[in-house]
Design brief:
single chain; alpha/beta; Metallo-beta-lactamase, Chain A; 7-stranded mixed β-sheet; globular
Length: about 230
């Protein structure tokens, strides 16, 4: 069992809205290729290029695990024709029935019921263990892979883990903060939604600098850019 980051998460947002580049993770287990959080259309080309570079195409992917159904984590599910889509009943109901600005309410209909697989907390598939981490959304889903846990926006940024407080909760703030603590107790290495992976050792949090989330901005016209370091929201 192994994993790699296909698209790096970037911890930035703007006064006009979210850029939304999340960590897109490829897991190889028991002869299957599974992607955790395929991202959104803005990084589709980068994702396809990353797959091509390792000799894979969208049709080779057997499964997609959605941490949740916000657009930035889920929209690229549509480009994998043979993949089962794993989510939770809680997330399906939340997506369909809650006025969350970032949830893609029509996504389950586009995917089709025959490809959707609803999983429960503690359930396992292909050596991966599902963990319910509610708060950011009602059915946020983490995955334990050996000594690593992929958490989506249950822990969006490294700073969230250090403070044990979420930056963004759309369902329940208290549950979101509890889910941060829960996730950090389940594995030594944590891959957050929009930041570098980090290690948890003796209550110390150390980013794994082997993974880069460098971000290049190309400017096509005169523009004023103000950069602010936002550590506490």
């Amino acid at each position: 069992m192994s994993w790699r980051i296909l698209v790096p998460g970037v911890p930035i947002y703007t006064n006009l809205g979210f850029v939304g580049f999340c960590n897109v993770i490829l897991i190889e287990t028991e002869g299957k290729y599974i992607i955790y959080d395929p991202g959104h259309f803005g990084n589709k080309e980068y994702l396809l290029s990353s797959l091509k570079n390792i000799g894979l195409s969208p049709s080779d992917i057997d499964g997609i695990i959605l941490s949740h159904m916000h657009y930035d984590h889920s929209l690229n599910s549509l480009i994998f024709p043979n993949a089962k889509i794993y989510t939770t009943k809680e997330e399906m109901e939340y997506t369909r029935n809650t006025p969350d600005l970032y949830s893609v309410q029509y996504l389950p209909d586009l995917i089709g019921a025959e490809r959707m697989v609803l999983v429960k907390d503690g359930e396992e598939t292909h050596g991966l263990k599902f963990v319910l981490l509610p708060g950011h959304t009602a059915g946020t889903l983490g995955v334990v892979c050996k000594d690593t846990i992929f958490v989506g926006d249950a822990i969006k940024y490294v700073i969230d883990a250090r403070r044990k407080q979420t930056s963004f909760a759309y369902h329940n703030l208290d549950e979101a903060n509890k889910s941060i603590v829960k996730a950090m107790q389940l594995a030594r290495i944590i891959v957050p939604g929009h930041d570098v992976p980090f290690k948890v050792e003796y209550d110390r949090i150390e980013p794994i600098l082997d993974y880069s989330n460098s971000f290049i901005v190309y400017i096509k016209n005169d523009i004023k850019i103000t950069i602010k370091r936002d550590e506490i929201r």
